[in-house]
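Lab manual, section 2.4: Encoding a predicted structure.

Procedure: take the sequence of the chain (164 residues), apply the prediction step described in section 2.3, and record the output as structure tokens. A sample record is shown.
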Amino acid sequence: MDEQLSLTSERSALSSFLDQQREGLIKKILGLDDPQARSAPTASALSLLGLIKHAATWEERWFHVVMAGGESSDGWPEVRPEPRDADCFVDESDTVQHWVGRYRQEIERSHAVVAARELDDPCARADIIVCNVRYVLFHLIEETARHAGHADIIRESIDGSRGF
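Recorded output:
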């Protein structure tokens, strides 16, 4: 653990832990070409590109829609994709450049949304979930860390690359 991080405020610590997980997830796809990133080399149907697409999609939904009350680019929650995990699936039109770029854009937008609020502030879309900023940060740390773990296994299965 970074000793300096342990001495910071709760807000800084939560934001830093989430950023570490985000970068860990992104790191796993860097250096792969699009076909490698779209491949699902394990028993799971997950691909690294699908994980990045999923992370970008939910980054927007949690921070821009749930927390800030904005509109999503895909019409969620009014439009619900079928199957439910459709945001994890990719095809030939999905590229590493597009989805990593989109994820990084959503991360920057999320930073601005969080910076404008206190941890105890309620999220804007209580019709979706009643929660506060702190809850969303904890939830996204948990989810992003889980997906970074998935990404570790997938990347190692693709080319033997290991490490966080």
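Check your result against the sample. Residues 49 and 94 are 8 Å apart (CA to CA).
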